[in-house]
TrEMBL record:
Residues 89-178 form the HD domain. Pfam families: HD. InterPro entries: HD_domain, MJ1020-like. This is HD domain protein.
Amino acid sequence: MAETTGNRHYDPDAEHAFPDERLNEVLSFIETDEEIQTYLEAQNVNPVTRMRYNDHGEKHIEIVLNRALCLYDLLKRGGVEFNGARDQGLEEADEAVILALAAKLHDIGHVVHRSDHTYYSIPLAADILNRILPEFYGIDGQVRIKGEVLHAILCHHTEEVPLTREAGVIRICDGLDMERGRSRNPYERGGRGINTVSSQAIQRVSLHEGEDIPVHVEIEMTDAAGVYQVDSLLKAKLDDSGLEDFVRIVAINTRSENELVERIEL
């Protein structure tokens, strides 16, 4: 996770706008955890192999994790305050830990079924958190961190409204994994559903520090089909995230000649 161009990858050795030592320790632990790594492979079978849907495995999780930490860093640089850890009496350093664990575990419920996977993710993630959190926290911290991580996991889909900005970050960044590589597998196997076709139109997603707002998200698309990813899926993620006032999303059609849509701004 060393590349930083366009704030797409979290670099543990870089300077950040938040205390990162605890986060880096947790990341080092979970990235080599055998059970978590097995889930990342197994959770892709139902959506991709059986349903020909977009990726929800290791690559998707890597993208959501990196973008969540990069978005969080930009928001912190912009002076945005987070309430999840704070409301629980936890430390600022725990905000990024909550984000990392929620990003890593938010889709494991897919091992049960894609339908209602968010709700299946809760007990499965709780079991993993019960095992790994004692490595870093006492009982009080374990309970509070676990609650915040599960809240963020629950709210990454649009059915539940995030009550914390940490959860809002996970919700948005789940939607920011929309580049064409995510739909490569179903597209090559003949999938032509709207999720697959619209994702094929998205060339690149990058995060930048904004001029009049903390975060500017730029989406490059090569076809008007990409509008579905932005105006339907991502807009629903941004709405009620608690971060609407701090994140501006601009999608540009880089091949706009004779196209119906040249630019979308959320």
